Amino acid sequence: MFGSIFGFAILKPMSKALPERFGGGYFGPKENVCCQSAATAAGSLGLLFSSGFPAAYQLGLLGNDPSADFGRIITFTITCAYVGIFFTMPLRRLYILKLKLTFPSSVATAYTIRSLHVGVNAAEVARKKTWALAISFLISIIWRVTSEYAPGIMWDWHWSWWFYRAGWKWIICAESWGWIWEWTPAFIGVGLLVPMNSSVSFVSGAALAWAIIGPALVTTGKAFGVAMSSQYPGYMNYANMVLDDPVHAPSPEYWMIWPGCMLLLSSSVAEIGANYRTVATAFSVMFQPALARLRRFRGKGGEDGKESVVLNKEDGFYDPVPPEEQTPWWLWVGGLIASSIMTMCVMKYQFGQNAGVTLLAIVFAFIFSLVGAECVGRVSVNPVTTLGNFSQLIFGGISKGSGMAATTNQLNNGLTGMITLAAAEQCSDMLGDLKTTHLLGASPRVQLYAQCVGALVSIFLSSAMYVVFSTAYPCINTLSTTRCSFPAPDVASWRAVSLAVSEPALPIPLSAGITALVLGGMVIVSTIVKYRFVPPAKHHLFPNWNAVGIAFVLGPSNTYPVAMMFGSLIALVWRKRFGGNWLMYGYAVAAGMIAGEGLGGIVNAALEIGKVSGLLYGTSVGCPMGEYCG
């Protein structure tokens, strides 16, 4: 979304001011989507530096500081940049053309781009939509920035804390389990876009995990929380990831990783299995040009390759992209092979990891990327950190039989987890861009080029920014007891899993493993019934298991599912009561809300660096324990 808006603001005037030989000329929606695709890729690698790398430094697994390791950081980031991009291309046909996943943010982006390119002579309807977009965008930016100075009043409503302080003591359990109301324009906007089934599944998964299973675990002694303060009895932290005994004394958040990941994996694999013909067709379509040439060479195919055109439509749905704009098979296959070889070489010669293990990590990265794509396509949330943690656990177990030192095991399973994280992030971002491309009628091949260029920028920019910030704020990479301006909450889970997998036994609580297997089996049976015995018109009656799984792994922080449900209810009433008005303004308002909160977050980060943020000058009124909660 940032790339769409800023790209338009910068490049549209330049296209008019510059002569054509210096980049001037026509700049329309297709050119704009190319710009935003490059911007998306440029931001996709940032998660590496707010999860795996800080955890490695906190555990003493790398050098003294990122400046000393800058070369290794660059080469590892290069390996993470391209694998996920190249194996995305065959998935376009399944997720976008066959399953028609929503990709809410991508729909909003496509709508934004269309609105941005409304000319002075456009219809009155288009101008109204553009105004709706602009107004919701500005309101969301202003709300996000100003709320940082009064977060307990304008952003998060800790309602159960208020009742607790008023004397209703037991209600504090709602606060402990993350049932907080948050005025987040972005997720309310996402709720306006996604189907009601996705929102209901998301909030139902949160209720199942953090209002039923979680409290039951604590009551029966299967999981344990930590008191927030001795001054406030009953106020607990159930999200801590400091695990001295992860099997017998896990936190509820750690316990829930296992059934949550099983839900995500089994749901994605079941969906792929139920649509195996489409998957096979997707790959066959990608390889058809090579097969057609082989047939002509052997004298068994038509001279002009007509057979290939027929096969392209055998799966029963139409691909509107002309052949010259499709991504040729040799491009993505060649890129995947080259990036995989590069990854194996870097991991072998710079980190001492077996090439076979690295290749296996790439295979798992592909599998987990399917999960990320499903999640982003359905509810606009990508649980890549949890997927990376799950990969850590798998490869930590594999590495135990090698006899390597515990610190080497911790470093290698962390790096393989980061490969998974980056691949899943790149894959879901690329599919989202391809959704926008599809809606605007642009070229998938051009988007691949744009993503490759954007990723190249991200390799150096993300690494350099990590060095700059960790130099200015050393607490990012140390286990400091003081408050850090950039706490990076994903680091705690990454560090905890790295320590856990170096233990003699796989750290899965028995109850969590049994629950995971039961839920996984239930998901598979549900998916088989849905596709074998229920007509497509009734598929929306089945739960969206990916949304349920995301609610499990997000931890006891239920602001997102509640806000998304709120947005979906608004959309439901809006459509029923004022259908024409919804068609006029609905998507524009949602797009503005999503983009506005994101830009507001950037402004807040700048204020933090400039030492004028809400942390220094804001109020803690309405926040638990009287501490600033922005």
UniProtKB/TrEMBL annotation:
The membrane-topology field of this record reads: Multi-pass membrane protein
InterPro entries noted in UniProt: OPT (IPR004813), YSL-like (IPR045035)
What Pfam families does the database record attribute to this sequence?
OPT
Annotated GO MF terms: oligopeptide transmembrane transporter activity
* Keyword terms, alphabetized: Membrane, Transmembrane, Transmembrane helix, Transport
Its localization reads: Membrane
Where does this chain mainly localize?
A: membrane
Q: Any transmembrane segments, and where?
A: 70-91, 130-147, 167-194, 206-228, 359-381, 448-469, 505-529, 549-573, 585-607
**GO cellular component term, pick one:** fungal-type vacuole membrane
- Highest taxon of the source? Eukaryota
The answer to whether the entry has keyword rRNA-binding is no
Q: State the similarity comment.
A: Belongs to the oligopeptide OPT transporter family.
What is the protein's given name?
Answer: OPT superfamily oligopeptide transporter
